[in-house]
Specification:
The chain has 192 residues and is mainly α. 80% of the residues lie in helices and 0% in strands.
Length: 192
């Protein structure tokens, strides 16, 4: 089995993407936010290392998330202030929205660059629509994170990250399937 095939295993991909968040949730429930933050940092580095070792590359989104977790997790532990780790989702989602917005302004839908190989071939219009929608969704997630952490307990916020934002993201991704199908470029028989 080639590295490319291994990299596309959806269960491993889900584990890499959501494993650190699950570690954060479990550690917070057992040991509190500061231990959970340290565990989250270690799990994020582990996810990056695992991805690199199995695919010989690390997707940009995983790098951004890992770097921001490292910075804001480090600040949380250094200052013993949970504010920093609570800001992490706002910062990450804002950075993703900004990056996609810049791509749109330059007429280069960055989603195509990030996810092109994992998607069926799409028209430029399809990539533009998906990029616009994801940029707006990332803005929505940043705002939602701000509302939740400012108006709830830390334990509720940690649970919401796993049991609220994760399903919301999966539902949003699934809701984009009609756009993908509508703007898919037909592949001729025999073409790979």
């Amino acid at each position: 089995m080639s590295d490319a095939v291994k990299a596309e295993n959806p269960w491993k991909k889900l584990l890499v993407e959501f494993g650190p968040l699950i570690v954060f949730f479990v550690a917070n429930n057992r040991f509190g936010i500061f231990t959970a933050t340290a565990a989250f940092m270690v799990a994020s580095v582990t996810a990056i290392a695992y991805t690199y070792l199995t695919t010989r590359r690390v997707p940009p989104m995983l790098w951004v998330t890992g770097i921001v977790v490292g910075i804001f997790g480090g600040l949380t532990l250094y200052f013993e202030d949970e504010l920093f780790i609570k800001l992490k989702p706002t910062i990450v989602n804002s950075l993703f929205a900004l990056g996609l917005g810049i791509g749109l302004a330059l007429k280069k839908p960055f989603l195509k660059t990030l996810f092109g190989p994992a998607f069926p071939p799409l028209t430029d219009k399809g990539w533009t629509i998906l990029t616009q929608r994801w940029a707006l969704f990332f803005v929505f997630l940043a705002i939602l994170n701000e509302v939740v952490w400012r108006n709830s307990t830390t334990d509720f916020w940690v649970g919401f990250k796993l049991w609220g934002l994760t399903p919301l993201s999966l539902v949003f991704a699934a809701s984009q399937v009609p756009v993908i199908l509508k703007h898919q470029i037909p592949v001729e028989d025999g073409a790979v």
